[in-house]
Amino acid sequence: MRIRNMMHDSLATVGPDVTFAELLLAYRDTDSRLVYVVSPEGKLLGVVSSYDILRAMFPFYLDSNLVKALPDDASVIRQAFSGCKGQPVSEIMTTDFVAVGPDDLFLEAEALIAERGVNVLPVLDDQGKLVGEVSRRAILKYLAAHCGLEAGE
């Protein structure tokens, strides 16, 4: 079973020069766990996860005890956002990503997902262009639909 049979191709993409504010809008409007940073030619340059976004907004030293001392209102979010809203996505994105091809076997994707501790992988064509993503959830849904189970079993 090939990745092309279970990948999604409705993805959020941005260019490397967009700001954090534009990135946050793209993330808000996607169902994916990632926003993909692509060149004008569509080649994948990096990925931005929810963790990357939160790390950019909130200091690394913020821990559960310190959070208890913060006000419980939107001012904390607005203040964090104001400090990074103009930051280019190229400073936030992760460039050390692993990808698969549409004709790779789904078990290869699952092995890479497990090895890297991620839940989703970009799918690239032979020229390095982003053509989709495959998630652990998509793999499991595909397996459930094709393992021969009948309703009620």
Q: In terms of per-residue confidence, which ranges show pLDDT below 50 for 5 or more consecutive residues?
A: none
Strand order of the largest sheet: 1-2-3
Mean pLDDT: 88
What portion of residues belong to β-strands? 15-25%
Q: How many angstroms does the end-to-end distance come to?
A: 24 Å
Main beta sheet, described?
3 strands, mixed
Enumerate how many helices there are, as a single number: 6
Q: What is the H-and-E element order?
A: EHEEHHHHEEH
Describe this structure in words.
By secondary structure, the chain is of the alpha+beta class. The chain is built from six helices and five strands; from the N terminus they run βαββααααββα. It has a three-stranded mixed beta sheet with strand order 1-2-3. Strands 4-5 form a two-stranded antiparallel sheet. The radius of gyration is 18 Å and the shape is globular. The model has no long low-confidence stretch (mean pLDDT 88).
How are the secondary structure elements laid out?
Elements: E1 13-14, H1 20-28, E2 34-38, E3 44-49, H2 50-57, H3 64-67, H4 75-82, H5 106-116, E4 120-124, E5 130-135, H6 136-146
Parallel strand pairs: 1-2
Antiparallel strand pairs: 2-3, 4-5
Short descriptors:
153 residues, alpha+beta, three-stranded mixed beta sheet, two-stranded antiparallel ribbon, 6 helices, 33% helix, globular
Give a concise summary.
It is built from 6 helices and 5 strands, in the order βαββααααββα. With 153 residues, the protein is of the alpha+beta class. The strands form 2 sheets. The chain has a 3-stranded mixed beta sheet.
